[in-house]
Design a protein that fits this description.
- By secondary structure, the protein is α+β, with helices and mostly antiparallel strands.
- The protein is globular and about 50 Å long.
- It contains 8 helices and 9 strands.
- A 7-stranded mixed β-sheet has the order 3-4-6-7-8-9-5. A two-stranded antiparallel ribbon has the order 1-2.
- It has a single domain, classed as SMI1/KNR4-like (3-Layer(aba) Sandwich), CATH 3.40.1580.
- Helix 1 crosses helix 4 and helix 1 runs parallel beside helix 8.
- 34% of the residues lie in helices and 21% in strands.
């Protein structure tokens, strides 16, 4: 068994029966969608691609299921997995701005508005990061990213969490595999019975 199949088995055991039924109706991404995602993000981890092969997004019509979590509220804040197409749609537009563009070029300017981990490059356009999850209110309050271009203090492929009000950008795992393992080890604390 891979980490992803072990993680999926644990998730299904933790989810209420109704959410398991919805999850079972969601199809996996096809080879063209996965190839397009890999082309846009060559460093995309194999574990995320494998997860998408099983489940291509969980914010789909009537089959909406919160299957991811973050460090907010002691790991109890839930997120939807974006589909491969939605991940690609996050590129460009407003998402092309950097943290520095949004909050100010100097650390002093930014400190009034946002807290940013030293592991995150504030000058990098946001669409150079792979947004893979939106929080339960469809991303307005929080989003999860894979950051392939960190500062020297970070690790390529680290999982970054954006949180709104007050705004902050934090690294919550060194890799997507580490992120999945933490959710598994934490007993899927974000799942509401």
């Amino acid at each position: 068994m891979t980490l992803v199949t072990t993680w999926l088995a644990g998730l299904r055991a933790a989810l209420p029966a109704g959410d398991c039924k919805k999850l079972a109706r969601i199809q996996g991404a096809g080879k063209p969608q996965l190839a397009a995602l890999r082309a846009a993000f060559p460093s995309c981890p194999a574990s995320l691609l494998e997860l998408l092969e099983h489940i291509d997004g969980t914010y789909t019509g009537k089959n909406r299921v919160l299957i991811l979590g973050s460090d907010v509220g002691e790991g109890t804040y839930p997120y939807y997995l974006l589909s491969a197409k939605e991940m690609l749609d996050e590129k460009g537009g407003l998402h092309a701005e950097s943290i520095a563009d949004i909050y100010g070029r100097t650390a002093r300017e930014r400190s009034q508005w946002v807290k940013v981990s030293r592991r995150i490059d504030v000058a990098l356009p946001m669409d150079r990061r792979l947004c893979f999850a939106h929080c339960m209110n469809n991303g307005g309050s929080s989003r999860l990213y894979l950051d392939f271009n960190p500062t020297l203090n970070g690790k390529a492929g680290q999982v970054m969490r954006f949180l709104h009000d007050p705004d902050s950008y934090a690294v919550i795992a060194d890799s997507f595999d580490d992120y999945l393992q933490r959710l598994l080890d934490g007993g899927f604390a974000f799942v509401e019975p």
